[in-house]
Specification:
The chain has helices spanning 2-24, 45-49, 51-59, 90-100, 121-129, 145-153, 185-198, 207-222, 232-239, 251-259, 292-298, 300-308, 317-324, 346-357, and strands at residues 34-40, 62-68, 84-86, 108-119, 133-135, 140-143, 246-250, 268-272, 274-275, 277-284, 312-313, 339-340. It is of the alpha/beta class. The strands form two sheets. Strands 1, 2, 3, 4, 5, 6, 7, 8, 10 and 11 form a ten-stranded mixed sheet that branches. Strands 9-12 form a two-stranded parallel sheet. Strand 5 and strand 6 form a beta hairpin. The termini are far apart.
């Protein structure tokens, strides 16, 4: 019995030594990942859930656990619980840095997406016949902001627009369903572009500009009733066939559907003729996630996956145009005919949001 036990113990010892040798021969970086937790804008949820993205990040040493929040509400969170924040533009990123006490963080802007309005075909046709939209194809066109804002300021109803009687579903005031401009980036940026047009095509920069534009901003927001905290809800409602006939969205949400070969349904994509680009800004809150933003910007595989989810890599116009070429019937890759403007300061933009909400 003692001899049998000795043989078994010897075999176990040899096996253990062999396992150690094998493990030492492996590259620990090839399998080891560090888990980082981040708070992101909801429009990036599908990107971070994408199995291909999860795999690509794991190969680079990261397991990412992401939670969604309105970009302008991130600074109110317990940021010490997160390793990074990823709001939808640089303006709320500054507020996050201030709240976390890390001004001057090594932030990166891996990709961006312009604001668009998605419309039901009947709504787009009526707006085009009324001179508020210029169609460039069956499923895409340009929203003419000055005429649209004039109609909003005059409290125009759908029934007052020529040709609307053929579409009984178009009733009530003409408005674009946005998100809450006090908490959501897309809602705030809609006020940024609308106030620019209302302020004589100039960025609102002082109290006088706020006073000039606030009444119209109030009309744009108050007519909507309850406001969603992020773009995901209204967009999904529109895709499901419910919701309002005009919805504010990110181009990336539409492009992602098309590139994932999902049926866009009866959608018309309208690019406001004055727009602001939302540069998604990665803010590392500690050293653990410091290199993740750079990976999203520079790694070829991750850049490819970024475009597959509809985002435009910075300095990647040609890449985005090539990737979306089969879907040019919906998209405007070069933003042809679109005037791109800057945004007000955080203080001005939040003042506009508060005045707009009353």
């Amino acid at each position: 019995m003692r001899r049998i036990l000795g043989i078994i113990l010897g075999l176990l010892l040899i096996g253990g030594v062999a396992a150690v040798v094998l493990l030492k021969g492996q590259d620990p970086e090839s399998t080891a990942t560090k888990t980082v937790r981040g708070v992101i804008g909801s429009e990036k949820s599908d990107f971070f859930r994408d199995p291909d993205v999860v795999k690509a990040l794991k190969e680079k040493g990261y397991t990412v656990k992401a939670e969604s929040s309105g970009s302008w509400a991130m600074d109110q969170l317990a940021l010490k619980e997160f390793d990074f924040a990823f709001p939808s533009s640089s303006e709320p990123a500054k507020e996050v840095e201030a709240a976390a006490g890390i001004q001057g963080a090594q932030e990166t802007k891996p990709f961006f997406s312009p604001i668009v309005v998605i419309a039901r075909p009947n709504a787009a046709k009526v707006l085009a016949d009324a001179g508020l939209v210029k169609m460039s194809g069956k499923n895409t066109g340009t929203l003419l902001m000055a005429p649209f804002l004039k109609a909003a300021d005059e409290d125009r109803n759908w029934q007052q627009l020529a040709g609307s009687s053929a579409y009984p579903e178009l009733t009530g005031r003409v408005f674009i369903k946005t998100t809450d401009p006090a908490t959501s980036n897309s809602g705030a940026l809609f006020l940024a572009l609308a106030s620019n047009v209302a302020n004589g095509n100039t960025v609102v920069a002082d109290d006088a500009g706020i006073e000039r534009t606030a009444p119209l901003m109030r009309k744009l927001i108050s007519v909507q009733g309850s406001l969603e905290p992020s773009t995901d809800g209204p967009f999904r409602a529109f895709i499901s066939g419910s919701g309002e006939p005009l919805i504010l969205a990110y181009e990336s949400q539409v492009a992602s559907m098309l590139l994932q070969h999902q049926d866009p349904g009866d959608m018309v994509v309208l690019y406001p003729d004055t727009t602001v680009n939302t540069a998604h800004t990665f803010v590392p809150l500690n050293d653990k996630a410091r290199d993740l933003g750079t990976l999203l910007s520079k790694d070829p595989r991750l850049r490819e996956l970024v475009m597959q989810r509809g985002f435009r890599p910075l300095e990647g116009v040609a890449e985005f145009t090539a990737a979306t070429a089969p879907h040019s019937g919906y998209l405007n890759p070069g933003l042809t005919g679109i005037r791109q403007v800057g945004t007000p300061t955080v203080k001005i933009l939040m003042a506009l949001a508060q005045r707009a909400k009353g």
